[in-house]
Amino acid sequence: MSLFSNDEPPNWRDQVDGNLSEELFEHIVVGALEESGFFEEITLDEGFHLRVKNSGGGKSQIYLDNLWAALGSSHGDRVSQIEQFVRAMILSAKERKLSPKDAELIVPVVRNIDMLEQFLNVEPPYAEPLFDHFAGDMVVMYALDEIEGIRYLNEQHFLEIGTPREDLRQRSIENLRKRLPEIDCLSAGPVSMLSAGGNYESSLLLFDDVWENARSSVDGELIVAVPTRDVVVFCGSYDFESVSRLSDQAVELFESGAYGVSGKLFRRGDEGWEEYKL
Question: What's the pTM?
Fold first, then answer.
């Protein structure tokens, strides 16, 4: 079902096929945001960056880098991808009072630390996102996994939900485990990749049992690359050629892919994950 109710599809839908220039891409996204009726003022800045004002008077900023990368690398339905993006932007801009019953929706989201900046560059200032430092340049953020998309949590949300802070990580992992499909491990020689639906693969780093099982399948220590949210690949530290190849691919995918997490490698030590340097 389409997000929008217009009988006649607007022009932006007719322009999404084929090769997209950056200018046309920005025009299409602005058209989709305007059509939603939620965003009343949209200003285009440089670098795939929009400043918007919604119908409730709230101001925020929207970054288009990930959507641009996703549309460029995907052979799927671009219209659906753009509509999903608009839904997510509306959800993130709408505030609602949370309650203890929302605790069952909390999931952990492993992201690059640079993502935190997007929550601080808004008017009025957004409360600091709820997060934990994880490993290297990665953080664990917390979000509500709702039907329309995910809503990242800040400290005020956390107080409204009421889950004890010391229980948050484990509670969120248990919630995510219930939501994920079966975790698949696909191997190509000494390198393996985990698959779990396409949105939360990076959060699999938090599943200790997954990595205890994987440890026995590699020679040496577990070396993992998590360049984007949907790509988690690993091999053993004794396979120097594979580790080197993993390092190169991590940098390439992190810089060019959608929803980048890290261009670094990580090793699984006795106390968890830490950055691994060649």
Answer: 0.83
